[in-house]
Specification:
GO molecular function, one term: oxidoreductase activity, acting on the CH-CH group of donors
InterPro entries: Acyl-CoA_Oxase/DH_mid-dom, Acyl-CoA_Oxase/DH_mid-dom_sf, AcylCo_DH-like_C, AcylCo_DH/oxidase_C, AcylCoA_DH/ox_N, AcylCoA_DH/ox_N_sf, AcylCoA_DH/oxidase_NM_dom_sf, Mycobact_Acyl-CoA_DH
Low-confidence stretches: none
Largest sheet: 4 strands, mixed
Keywords: FAD, Flavoprotein, Oxidoreductase
Structural class: alpha+beta
CATH topology of the largest domain: Butyryl-CoA Dehydrogenase, subunit A, domain 3
Organism: Novosphingobium chloroacetimidivorans
Helix content: 40-55%
Number of domains: 4
Number of helices: 23
Strand content: 5-15%
CATH class of the largest domain: Mainly Alpha
Shape: elongated
Family: Belongs to the acyl-CoA dehydrogenase family.
Mean pLDDT: 95
């Protein structure tokens, strides 16, 4: 898996970034608005850097680079609001090079002397249409029935008028102008159609760059503006919406990358994803610029601040082709209506999202285990929650060395994180989510690093053999996600042992586990995060009481009470008052988990129900399912990025919190959508796909809470991802 650019692409990005920073400043963008949003000097400079030759085949005089190279440039163009129809010009130049017959015009376009753009609609059906860059275009490449033509636009044919964002668009009667046929028939039409799909990718990249920069402007303003004596960035009502929008905008960028990879690999969903990516990025950018503007308050409405430029440009770029919902409909037809598409040749690209042979190998092993080693009686006990833990299956997994797949310290394998993630997905596919094993692995890892020899001999060895599991005793009734506010006390007796008194809430699996990892307060006279100590506490010890709490998710959790529970000092993890450091060790096992795979499995169940009902051909149904697909691929890519960044030791930009928060939020949205799509049958818990749809709706609510609430993660995203001030105590 790789999210890094090559050295050459990094150089290309940095070169264009520097040029655009110097030549597409706010002042230049505003100046270009006086000439209908076109900066002729900028256009010439872009040509000198080779921008318009990037996608032109080498045999036609171009650079012959791939779509990914062009995407890198377009993201910078979006970030700096480059004034001119760059995405359209890149596609038009490539089409001229591919089709031939207009070599002089192509040379002029590459050199920046001519502005050549594209028409989005067939001239035979829509002779008069809006053209991006039309006010300054010298020529337009278009479809006209079975022909692909280049239309010459004489001076005065396109009249500038006031527009939303003062971009150089114009409504032109193209059918009334002189046209040269570049190609005819199936091949030429396919080439042009591929060009239009390439434009969707380029424009989506530009919008992701634009959206992220708008959020950066909003975040920077929130770091300097005060209200009620505080920086407004400390208000969660300001920072949290920006964090939401950052996930969506970043997701759009990653979706572009994933779609290019899918095209290169010939993935069956690539065509539908091309349509989805512009819908998603256009929608995300529009939401991002509006939220960023809101951060400025009334000042955002003035022309003094640049944020309004981003607000208007986001919509002007995204809507030049037409209603974004048309793209969602197109995606639906491509996924479910068998609508054909012609995709561009994307060329070489460095990014890779393959799980690898190691993952496929262990996945096959997990599949074989569940197909051959599990009895019908054991399978009946499976459940997605802790209550699905089956002791006999747990023991078999340990014997098959499939229990602790990424942790040799626990006696397991040394699988890489990608293989471990895929193995977990295979477990889920067979209905055995096994959260107990995951928590036990984490607790065991902490024992390896901080446990005494006595603790390892008495407890850790049993965990390794699969004889028992552990649960977590972090949260308390009064502190929830603020674990550092724990008040459960641990007091040392004269003989060195400890007495633990207090209450823990949400101790899931305590009714099944033999031990709990306990966070206690050992020093109330220091800052709350410094006076904490960790222990392993036997849940069968005298003074421990476990009471059930049942949820509407069909999950049981527990409240646990500790009344003078005696624990030997040898069962302490790490130094006294050093619990925070011990907890940090567990983070080494975290790589940005999420719920994209759960949403995908529920979508498959939903599709099955709708297929049997004969509803998959309904356009509205197709669009709603396509929207869910967009969420799945975006969530998965954010999860992949978090895992990759952790493996490669990249700077902490809150990628992990983004993965968990975004996927849990869209899980609820999508689960509700699928419950509605399949109603009233989905109200039933009938075994099969309906049961999964019903269960997912109830399950999704909890994912936004456990493992850290979405609100906590939003604060982390705002702080680390946008550089905003701390919003938590």
């Amino acid at each position: 898996m790789n999210f890094d650019l090559t050295e050459e692409q990094t150089m290309v990005r940095d070169t264009f970034a520097r040029f655009l920073d110097e030549n597409s400043t706010s002042a230049r963008v505003r100046k270009a608005m006086e000439t209908s949003g076109f900066d002729a000097e900028l256009w010439t400079g872009l040509a000198e850097l080779g921008a318009f030759a990037i996608r032109v085949p080498e045999e036609a005089g171009g650079m012959g680079l791939g779509v990914f190279d062009a995407v890198v440039v377009m993201e910078e163009a979006g970030r700096t609001l480059a004034s001119g129809p760059l995405a359209e010009a890149l596609v038009a130049a490539r089409l001229l090079g591919q089709l031939g017959g207009a070599e002089e015009l192509l040379e002029s376009a590459i050199g920046g002397e001519s502005v050549v753009t594209i028409a989005f609609h067939d001239l035979a059906e829509r002779p008069k249409q809006w053209v991006a860059g039309g006010t300054h275009a010298n020529a337009v490449v278009a479809r006209r029935g079975d022909d692909i033509v280049v239309v010459t636009v004489p001076e005065g044919a396109a009249k500038a008028e006031e527009t939303l964002a003062t971009t150089p668009i114009a409504e032109i009667d193209l059918a009334a102008l002189d046209a040269q046929v570049l190609g005819s028939g199936e091949g030429a039409l396919a080439t042009f159609a591929a060009g239009l799909d390439e434009w969707k990718l380029l424009m989506a990249a530009a919008l992701s760059g634009l959206g992220r920069q708008a959020l950066q402007l909003g975040a920077a303003y929130a770091c300097e503006r005060k209200a009620f004596g505080q920086l407004i960035g400390t208000f969660q009502g300001v920072s949290h919406p920006l964090a939401d929008r950052l996930c969506e905008v970043d997701g759009g960028k990653l979706m572009v990358w994933r779609t290019i990879r899918d095209i290169a690999d010939g993935h069956k969903d690539a065509a539908g994803n091309v349509s989805l990516v512009l819908w998603h990025s256009g929608t995300a950018a529009a939401a991002a610029v509006s939220q960023a503007l809101q951060t400025f308050g009334g000042y955002g409405l003035t022309t003094e601040y640049d944020i309004h430029l981003y607000n208007l440009r986001a919509n002007a770029w995204a809507l030049v082709r037409g209603d974004l919902q048309d793209l969602l409909a197109e995606a639906g037809r491509r996924f479910y209506g068998e609508e054909a598409a012609h995709l561009p040749e994307v060329g070489d690209l460095p990014i890779e999202f393959d799980i690898g042979e190691e993952a496929r190998s262990v996945g096959a092993e997990v599949d074989a285990f569940f197909e051959t080693q599990i009895t019908d009686e054991e399978r009946k006990q499976f459940h997605y929650s802790w209550e699905g833990w089956v002791p006999s299956v747990h023991k078999k997994l340990a014997e098959a060395n499939l229990l602790f797949l990424g942790n040799p310290d626990m006696g397991g394998r040394a699988l890489g994180p990608y293989a471990k993630k895929y193995a977990r997905e295979c477990f889920n596919k067979h209905g055995y989510a096994n959260p107990g094993a995951g928590v036990t692995e984490m607790v065991g890892y902490m024992m390896v690093h901080y446990g005494t020899d006595e603790l390892k001999a008495q407890v850790l060895d049993r965990l390794k053999r699969g004889e028992c599991i552990t649960s977590l005793g972090y949260s308390e009734p009064s502190c929830g996600s603020d674990v550092f506010a724990a008040q459960t006390r641990a007091t040392q007796a004269e003989d060195g042992s400890w007495r633990i008194n207090g209450t823990k809430m949400w101790t899931s699996g305590a009714n099944l586990s033999e031990y709990v990892l306990m966070l206690t307060r050992t020093n109330p006279d220091v800052p709350k995060h410094k006076g904490l100590t960790m222990f392993i506490v036997p849940l069968k010890a005298e003074g421990v009481e476990v009471q059930p709490i049942y949820t509407f998710q069909d999950e049981r959790t527990n409240v646990t009470f500790y009344d003078n529970v005696e624990v030997p000092d040898t069962w302490r993890l790490g130094p006294v008052d050093g619990g925070t450091k011990v907890m940090a060790a567990a983070l080494e096992l975290e790589h940005g988990g999420g719920f994209s795979k759960t949403i995908e499995e529920t979508l498959e169940a939903c599709e099955e129900v709708l297929r049997e009902a004969g509803r998959l051909s309904e356009p509205s149904v197709q669009q709603r399912l396509a929207r869910i697909r967009a969420h799945i691929i975006t969530a998965e890519m954010i999860e992949f990025r978090a895992m990759w960044a952790s493996v490669e030791k990249k700077p902490n930009m809150a990628y992990g919190p983004m993965a968990k928060m975004y996927s849990s939020e869209v899980f609820l949205v999508d689960a509700r959508e699928m419950l509605q799509l399949t109603a009233p049958a989905s109200l039933s818990k009938r075994e099969g796909p309906l049961q999964l749809i019903n269960q997912s709706y109830r399950h999704a609510h909890g994912t936004r809470i456990y493992g850290g609430t979405s609100e906590v993660h939003r604060s982390m995203i705002a702080e680390r991802g946008l550089g905003m001030p701390r919003t938590r105590g």
